[in-house]
Structure formats: structure tokens, C-alpha cells
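Review form for a predicted model. The reviewer records the input and the model, then writes brief findings.
Reviewer: anonymous (R2)
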Amino acid sequence: MIFAQDRREMRRIFFNAWIKYRAQQPLEDMEQQIADVILLHPEYHALLADEEVALDSDYTPEQGESNPFLHMGLHIAIREQLTTRRPPEINELYQQLLEKLRDAHEAEHRMLECLGEVLWRAQRDAVEPDVAEYVMCLRRAAGLKPPCSGITK
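Model under review:
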């Protein structure tokens, strides 16, 4: 698992994977996943070249910034969900997004918008993330209608 309690420790995992990748050293599975996500985001390469600054930087919407580590972490979370098929509908919805967008990276971005929103609400309300709301958001992103509840009027 890449997520740690300490922000600096979690961010160091990204830096270490990127350093090893650039030095062409062998990578563990998770390090390879991190390197793959970093490669998709050249806008973060300069940030990853300055570890000391990035380790302690705050990235807040109020400053007009998005958190690159959160963004990359959400990509990794989406990929883990696809691998583990949790929630069960995730792979089908990902395929629908791929068909609609024809771009795997953009499909992941649509998915991580949903995941980020559900996680933000859960944190704000101090509750568990609402998986049903997450799936509904993914369905909307894929252009699918909500499933029938079985209740007739």
C-alpha cells in the first residue's frame, strides 16, 4: 500500500519511485505503477525534481492549485479498483468510458473526479465513502442512466 499517515512519507514514495525509474533501476510493482502515472503527467516532472520544496508544499484550491500527489494517488487508486474489481461494476463502467472517450488517461480522469468528490464528501461529513454515489457518478460520467430500482409507479 502506498498511502501513509505522514504526508512527507507518502510523498517520498513518489519521489523514490521516480528516482529509481530515471536511474533505470529495477522497480517493484507499486513503484512501476507510480512511475507509469508520473509519465502520464509531464507537468509534474519539474515538481518531482525538487523534493525538498514539494515535500512541505501545500496545494490548496484557495491558491488556485490542485495537489499533484493527490491527483496521482487517485490515478493509482482507480487502477487498484480496476485490478480488484471493487466496486464490482468498476470494470464495466471503465469500458463504457473508454468507448465514449477513446482515451484511457481521460477515462481515468473522469473516474478520479467521481472518486475525489465522494472522498471529499466523506471526509467533510466524517463518514465512510458512499460507494453507491460513486457508482452513480461513474454511470453519469459514462453517459449511462441510473439502474432501475425495481419500484414502479
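Findings: The chain has two domains: 1-65, 85-145.
Further findings: The two ends are 47 Å apart (CA to CA).
Recommendation: see findings above.
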